[in-house]
Amino acid sequence: MRNHSAVSEFVLLGLSDDLLIEALLFMIFLAIYLLTILGNLMMLLVVRTDTHLCTPMYFFLGQLSFLDLCHSSVTVPKLLENLLSEKKTISVEGCLAQVFFVFATGGTESCLLAVMAYDRYVAISSPLLYGQVMNRQLCIGLVWGSWGLAFLDALINILVALKLDFCEAQNIHHFICELPSLYPLSCSDVSASFTTLLCSSLLHFIGNFLLIVFSYIRILLTILGIRSTSGRSKAFSTCSSHLTAVSFFYGSGLLRYLMPNSGSTQELIFSLQYSVITPMLNPLIYSLKNKEVKAAVRRMLRKCS
Question: Which of 43, 97, 191, 192 is the most buried (most CB within 10 A)?
Fold first, then answer.
């Protein structure tokens, strides 16, 4: 049996082998990718230039937009290339690099969503102390901590995965390289890598999810203590965009990494949701549900015209 150094490339079987369907999918995903770039760049520009959006909430929103640009750019360009290509191959090194960056950017988004939940808790429970508690130094530290923790997590997983040996099988029943998709191709024991992946998923992703749940329990208790109906409505409206983003991300990403690898349609849909669709939807969610962002976009458009 050959080890991974002898296997030079894998074949990404993708979403379809029908040429007409592939052409249609190429147009759809190209449009999604362009919308993702446009929407997140616009959000970054609005947050950076509008003086009304100088609060920590919008600082984190700008970081989320930058992260969505990175996460989408790790997966979609290769997907578009394979939809036009007959070979649909990816080198072993390129595949492992994609695994690393998918894990790193996804892990960073998980941490950042937890940070944004804590930010909403402080804003609602202690509005008078919000600026002091969520000072710029703390915000920058939380962002760097999110990136650092996610990249460390990804590095540990990829170092263990480098020890896997691969045999004759080279077909990956997926459109991107993900760690669970490589296990069926390995002719060596995958238990160490699988255990590392499972532990990191439980500690990192579920840990962050529990922090989000805890923050929203505290937020809910605080909102229930507000006497006026308008005050409750206003407090809850500041959280609706974040709750929607959390639902999209965890509703697909966490399920994808915890479900058995089978190459099923459901598995591909979960991967498409968190790696392609969610980065496009996040700027729409925050711009449509947030009055301040909508007002800032209108001010920017007036300046441009």
Answer: 43
Q: What count of Cα atoms within 13 Å lies in the side-chain half-sphere of residue 105?
A: 24
- pLDDT tens, position by position, 117-134: 999 999 888 888 888 888
Residue 128 gets which letter from DSSP? G
Instruction: Confirm if 204 and 149 have CB atoms less than 8 A apart.
Output: yes
Global confidence as pTM: 0.87
DSSP 141: H
Contact 115, 146 (CB under 8 A): yes
Contact 53, 292 (CB under 8 A): yes
Structure tokens at 125: 């429970």
Q: Which of 270, 254, 267 is nearest to 213 (CA)?
A: 254
What number of other Cβ atoms are within 10 A of residue 208's Cβ? 25
The model's pLDDT over 70-120, given as tens digits with 9 standing for 90+, comes to 999 998 998 898 888 888 888 888 889 999 998 899 889 999 999 999 999
What is the SS3 assignment for 205? helix
pLDDT (tens digit per residue) in 16-54: 777 888 889 899 999 999 999 998 998 888 888 877 778
Classify residue 2 by its DSSP letter: -
Q: Which residue's structure tokens are 């402080």? A: 122
Cβ proximity of 279 and 69 under 8 Å: yes
Spatial contact of 193 and 160, defined as CB atoms under 8 Å apart = yes
